Amino acid sequence: MDLYEYQGKQFFASYDIPVSPGEAVTTVDDAVAAADRIGYPVVVKAQVQVGGRGKAGGIKLADDAASCREHAQNILGMDIKGHTVEILWIELASDIAEEYYASFTLDRAAKKHLGMLSAQGGVEIEAVAETDPDAIAKIHIDPVDGLTPEACREWVLAAKLNPDVTDGAVDILLKLYRAYVEGDADLVEINPLIVKPDGAVHALDAKVTLDTNALFRHPDYEQYDATQVRDEREEAAHEKGLQYVGLDGSVGIIANGAGLAMSTVDVVSQVGGSPANFLDIGGGANADVMAGALEVINNDEKVRSIFINIFGGITRGEEVANGIVQALSRVEISSPIVIRLDGTNADEGRAILAEHASDKLLSEPTMLEAARRAVALAAEGA
Amino acid sequence: MAIFVDENTKVVYQGLTGSQGRFYGLRNRDYGTQVVAGTNPKKAGEEVDGIPIFASVGDAVEATGADVSCIFIPAPGVKAAVMEAAEGGVKMIVVITEGVPAQDEALFYNDLKRNFPDVQLLGPNCPGIISPGKCNIGITAGEIAMGGGPVGIVSRSGTLTYQALHELTQKGIGQTTCVGIGGDPVPGTTFIDCLERFEADPDTKAVMMIGEIGGSAEEEAADFIKSSMTKPVSAYIAGVTAPPGKKMGHAGAIVSGGKGTASAKMDALRAAGAQVGQNPTEAGELMAGIVKDLGL
Fold first, then answer.
1. In this structure, are residues B63 and B44 in contact, taking their beta carbons and an 8 Å threshold?
2. Please, are residues B124 and B149 in contact by the beta-carbon 8 Å criterion?
3. Which of A282-286, B120-124, B129-133, B219-223 has the lowest mean pLDDT?
4. A window 216-255, beta carbon within 8 A of B
5. Is residue B166 among the annotated active site residues?
6. Which residue, among A260, A315, A320, would best test binding to B if mutated, counting the most B CBs under 10 Å from its CB?
7. Is B168 within 8 Å of chain A by CB?
């Protein structure tokens, strides 16, 4: 789950990482009122979960109420790489002496945490990584040991920051690592990490991705979940606890497990069809989950046929079949359904489906045959 | 032969008294797996359909000689359960549970590596391991597998593990062992761990490998195939048509910045000499060709 900058800063502040005072607002009047409370100059910053805001004109300095109003008016509603700006973060402007980059994430190949620190901040770090990889100091951290103050100091020295700020950098990096681990983040990134003229080290931006698997440890993360941007279909699926990705085609796809769902998208594409979505009902999905998935797909106007591809492991065939039958009695499904069912209790499931077979409910023995059938039906229904 | 587990393997189930653990534990036993114990600190002394329940994995190992633990408990308890299993003295830990926080996975993976280097961790979020006709640990439906070799299977995706078994069994091609390594960010067992063992296993003559977009595990496997494998490999990478930047289900399955794409992974595998299919059925057909060419 990606956080907005203002949420990332709240998250940072809860781990004592210094951030600028500011307020999140959604209207021009509130922006000006917030700026009056904070005191000028302020920075008006678009809140979108995509990089390159500055270049797109989504970050502006305001010295007084008139310019704050003007910038807020311009930025609210702006489109930045397909994201509409609905929230502004009004923040006290900072004087900047130096700009650095710092982040922690998991290095999957090394199976350890990876810290990256660079004296070249405020720019796209991917570009630095390509043009001048030596400008990024990396540290691998064994989660058993954590980041020790000694290792952190060596890392900071290797990054060749201004030597005067070594202590300040070590302090903020240790706090950032703690936030990353204790906060169950997949990524924490500060770009730029600034040094003020007085030598204080400070997070001027915040990029945070939280691990949704750890929500049981962090009930307060509900507040972040509530502001996630999802389209209608994604929201409906999310409410039902389903993994959903919207695509542009006409064949609705329901499968169990991310791998099989991806593979189903592949096969539908390869036999000449176009998937309308990717919907994973997950492991152990019961009848209610299947019924819910069908409802989500049925509400998608682009869908002309539905391909349900189930290979039962922890998901049981008779549960899937019952779910489909229940869904058909609950909702008027507008598109024909093609089912391919194998695995745990598949025979029981197939028997249930056979009892309810019709021109709206078809079974095919293999993934390829079912894909071809679903694609042909989508073409007929188009 | 089989890799990791065979007919002599004795399994303790952490979570046998829960509904999922009971269903799959008993099903694994029906398959022929030696399910010798379950654990539950509150139900020690009881039994589940004749299988004794112990307070801890250590107690179960002492009483029954169990050498593998299979974890079927909810995600919040997995970190403690893995460490309990390692301290209890099993040689392999299979974690079926999905939704384990990445910080926990990274922690217990490294803790095991340092303090219990001989313990083989499989998963989390994996379907388990099956040596057909000998031992089935986890949630794979035993009836889709066929024993007798000659093909070993290793897969990062749960459901595609079954699909791979199904493709081969339908063609009358038996398997030595099928390992589902799981799609989480820090899998305990990697493609390379399995490829190494399949290469060393005299009964395994070829390997089918199922990967997916995201990360670099398939590229690393390709390097290993090129440098160290003499046995032929067929492969499929799920997510050939996945749109960049969208997270396709798992934490792992995302293509970002042009890295981790299916086509890059397929290219790496092809360059390493593997035969790569565009879908699981094609990968199965390629394997049928390999088996035929080997004269098996």
1. no
2. no
3. A282-286
4. 216-217, 243, 245, 247, 255
5. no
6. A260
7. no
